[in-house]
Task: structure prediction
Amino acid sequence: MKKNWQTIFFLFGLAAVVLMLFTFDADWIRVRQVLSQAGIWFPVIVLLWGFIYLMNACSFGLIINDGTGRRVPFSKVFQLTVSGYALNYVTPLGLMGGEPYRILELQGYVGGRKATSAVILYSMMHICSHFCFWLSAVALYVVLHFVADSYALDLWMCIMLGVMTVVFVAVLWVFSLGYRKGFVVKVFGLLSRIPFVKKWAAGYLERHRADLEDVDNQIAFLHTQRRAPFWWSLLLEYSARVVSCLEYWLLIGMLEPGFTFWDSILVMAFSSLFSNLIFFSPMQMGGYEGGMALAAGGVQVPGAYGLYTALVARLRQVVWTVIGVILIKVGKRND
Result:
C-alpha cells in the first residue's frame, strides 16, 4: 500500500477520534461515575473484545490465505481487522473507511483482485453472521417467553417476530446466491439502472467487466471449492457475536442478579438490530443507547441499566477505536 494512503487513513482516523471525544454524548463527570461503577469489569471487557477481534481475524485469515499466492502473516490480518473496524466505527454509513483501507493494504500481499474479493467476502461473512444471530435470537425469544414461560401469544408480537423471520431468511437466501455465484457484476448492473449513478455504473461495468467477473469467481471459489474454511469462517463470525454477549451479561448481571446469559443474547441481538437500522450515523450515535434501553426493557430489565451498559460499551468502543487508529501507524512502519 502506498505510504501516503496509509497516512491519509491514519490522519482521518485520528481526526475522527478527536471529534468523537469532543462530541461524546455524556459529560466527563458521568463518564468517571460509570467507570467507577464498572470497576474491574471495564478492563475485563476491553480484553474480552481483544479476544473477539482475534476470532474475527481468524475468520478473515481463513478467507485471505486460501493456499494460492503469498501468505499474509496473521499479525497483519489482526491489525487489518482491528484498524478496519476502527475506521468503520467513525465513518458515516459504515463500511466506507475500513473496507477500502483493507483492500489497499492487502494489494501489496495478494494483488488487487484477490484483495478486493477477500475483503468483500469477509464483509459478506460478517454481515451474514449478524442475520444468523438475529434469526437465532428470534427462536430463542420464542422458546424462552412463549414455550418455557407459557406466555400468551400476543398478536402484534407474533406478527413482528413473523415479519422479522421472513426478512432474515430472505436476506440469508440472497447471501447464499451471492456466495455461490458472486454478486459484484449484478450490483453494478443494478446500479446502472438507478438515476444519478447509472451513467457512472454502466461505464465502470463496461470498462472493468473482466476484473469484476474475476472478483465474483474468487468469491464463489471459497464457497464451492473450499467449503470447510467457508463454514469455519462463518462459524467464527457467528461465535464472536455470541461471545460479545458476555459484555452485557457481566455489566447488567452486576446490577440485576436475575439477568441470565440468554437474556444478554436477546439484549445484544435486538439492540444491535436497532442500532444497525441507523447505520448512517458514525458509531451509531443515539441509536445504540436507545436500542439498548428498549432491548433491556423487553427482557424486564430497567431501561436505566440498558443506558448504563450502553455507555460502558461505548467507552470500550472508544478504547478499541483508538487502538485501531494507532495500529494503522504501526502497520505502516512494519510493512
Summary: Residues 3-334 form one domain. Residues 280-284 have pLDDT under 50 and may be disordered. DSSP finds 13 helices and no strands in the chain. The longest helix spans residues 112-148.
